[in-house]
């Protein structure tokens, strides 16, 4: 039986720091860029912005009250650590929005507010997700609906957000709704960058009769380790060696030129990897 491993003190401190930083960043995006310019976000945050505007109450109150039910659902669905991290992140975000509320907007230029608000929002949410929490209950709601109805999590989130942005159109005007969709898209892309990191890795698969030569050239000239996998051609039945290698985005062009040099007819497939851990991925120095 496997026991749940407790986080070390340093890991707990690191997690708390980034959860706090992410939640504060999201509050900055909301209260200093988006909300003063009547631009919304999607999800539960979008509903909170509409209710705060219509009822004249503090945004932080709605962010906390509407998201907390999902804390309990998250506890059952995704686990204790996730639920506690989520509750902590939501609490910090709600308090921070109240703190930033009196601060005047950094800019009244709608486009600037949309872009920088979206980036701050995405960076904040991305950090919180990367360190094991969530700042919006929409995804948890989507996971539950996905188990009961034939819609994917992504489809549920999309329908939910379309409904919220449509409501925002009636409340704030359709130009603001369109700016809100732009801010949401920018935030969405920023989340990807923060979670995956700027130095995105790539996996490379090479099939060639000169496998040994290519492997040695990659190790010598790129400083990367390679793995040889055994393969078999389905059409010919010949034994093949497949070279597998993980590189950074900046090394892709050099790798292609090395392979081209050794064997111009080699089969080469390159794809993106979200995360690399363990093994010998760290680059060796090239002499």
How is this structure best summarized?
61% of the residues lie in helices and 10% in strands.
Could you describe the largest sheet, including whether it forms a barrel? 4 strands, antiparallel
Q: Fraction of residues in helices? A: 55-70%
Mean pLDDT, rounded to whole units?
A: 85
Question: Strand-residue fraction?
Answer: 5-15%
Low-confidence stretches: none
CA-based shape: elongated
Structural class estimated from helices and strands: alpha+beta
**What kind of oligomer do you see?**
single chain
Radius of gyration: 24 Å
User: Can you count the beta strands?
Assistant: 4
Q: What strand order characterises the main sheet?
A: 2-3-1-4
Cα end-to-end separation: 48 Å
Individual helix count: 10
Order of helices and strands: HHHHHHHHEHEEHE
Task: Offer a few descriptive terms.
single chain, 287 residues, alpha+beta, four-stranded antiparallel β-sheet, 10 helices, 10% strand, elongated
